[in-house]
Amino acid sequence: MNSVPLLEVKNLKTHFHTERGRVTAVNGVSFTINKGEIIGIVGESGCGKSVMSQSIIRLLEHTDSIEYEGEVRFDNQELLSMPISQLRAIRGDEIAMIFQDPLSSLNPVYTIGNQIVEVLRQHQKISKKEAHKKAIEVLRATGIPSPEIRVNDYPHQLSGGMQQRAMIAMALSCEPKLLIADEPTTALDVTIQAQIIELIMELNRTMGMGVLFITHDLGVVSEICTSVKVMYLGQIVEDTTTERLFATPLHPYTQGLIKSIPRMDGNRHEKLHVIEGTVPSIADIPRGCSFSTRCPYADERCFNEEPLMEKVNAEHSVKCWNYAAINNLEGRA
Length: 333
Hints:
The chain has 333 residues and is of the alpha/beta class. It is built from 13 helices and 12 strands. The strands form 2 sheets. An 8-stranded mixed beta sheet has the order 6-7-8-3-9-10-12-11, sandwiched between helices. Strands 2-1-4-5 form a 4-stranded antiparallel beta sheet. A hairpin with a 2-residue loop joins strand 9 and strand 10. Helix 4 (112-123) crosses helix 5, helix 4 (112-123) packs parallel to helix 7 and helix 5 crosses helix 7. The radius of gyration is 21 Å and the shape is globular.
């Protein structure tokens, strides 16, 4: 692996200034991605995954109410302090992003081909004819049938799966070094979902690009990610390899998420496990451990003191005061 990570996020914080004062949606997130790695970010809706991913390339700056702290280094360039004109040259070229809802990202009044051509010509010095030819090639690479015909279609003429493929084609047209995929398969049926996942994995292998894969689906994570960061209320509460996460989850929140996955060999008449309560508002984050109000193991210390991220071993870190007692690890070397 490279000595310098492709992406290095250090203590990233994202604050919003609201009528109720400053609220923190992302609170001290740190991680790295190397070239060719697929890193997973998992957690329930409302835990800050999407805000975190958009903060990396400052997509939230359409308003004056946003404030960032920390460092985001991409390919040894600091993104949070970079002039926006310089950052725009990186977005869509070296860093690409795909979203959960393709229709909110595709322009309904332009053909798919025109939108890919626009991206290509914005970042590469090629003619319109060359860009059109490359648009057909990237549509073909994403598995869209008859791409020379589909290139002239408008978004509404495509199915949901085709729209998602077209958006992936647009994102990958400039062969980015990093792909940020924000719940790209959530709105798709399981067959199309599997095809999109396979497509991202194949492009990761052939292009060597790093992938930040954001999802609430642990099943998807188990298939494609090399390591996983579990997020809750804007913080990473557990960070480990995918194998270790499923074999020995240490944080009560992670354990709850894994128990909630339906099992093929499970009792159909048995109720699925649920994590009690709901994710609190970021305007009303609990004191102490952010998960304390929903945790079955919370004690007085959990309600009053925020735990630090503790390194359990070289491949596993967890943010929980009681993880050792919960998992019978006390006294072990």
